[in-house]
Amino acid sequence: MDLESTVRALEKRVGELEDRLAIYQLMYTYGPAADSGSAKAAAHLWTADGVYDVADVAAMTGHRELEQMYEGKTHQALIHKGAAHLTASPHVVINGDRAVATSTTARRRWTRHGALQHHLIDPRTGRPSASGVLSAR
Questions:
Q1: Confidence (pTM)
Q2: I need a surface site. Which of 33, 40, 91, 132 has the fewest CB within 10 A?
Q3: Which residues are CB-contacts of 122 (< 8 A; sequence separation ≥ 6)?
Q4: pLDDT digit string (tens) for 82-127?
Q5: DSSP strands (E only) in 8-119
Q6: Percent residues over pLDDT 90 in the chain
Q7: Are residues 1 and 9 in contact, defined by beta-carbon separation less than 8 angstroms?
Q8: What is the pLDDT of residues 13-67, one digit of tens each?
Q9: What residues does each domain of the chain span?
Q10: 33 vs 48: CA distance, rounded Å
């Protein structure tokens, strides 16, 4: 491999590592922001059109709705009682300008209409993954 090819390959690898680090940083920033009641900081970790879908409870879209949820009585009562968001080590797959980060289904799951649901979304379907995988490391 010549020098130019080596530099291009290294630039690609460093770029992917920087992307992975940014994803980890984003994911690990969420818990402290949400648990400290920092509504604006937590809400702005989402994209402007991001959707937070809480099973049969509610779906909030965009920064303002998310801020209202974090400022709301339910969320405030939870954090004042000591509830905490813990982020499991995610599995991150980067493909060019797209990435999918997943974590465990062991703690964040529920039953809806008799079917197990969880927060790991299959990007091809927009629905909870049906792979049977309970966690990824």
A1: 0.64
A2: 132
A3: 128, 129, 130, 131
A4: 877 777 788 888 888 888 887 654 555 667 787 766 655 554 565 6
A5: 51-54, 58-61, 91-95, 98-102, 109-112, 115-118
A6: 33
A7: yes
A8: 999 999 999 999 988 898 899 989 899 999 999 899 988 877 666 788 999 999 9
A9: 1-87, 88-137
A10: 17
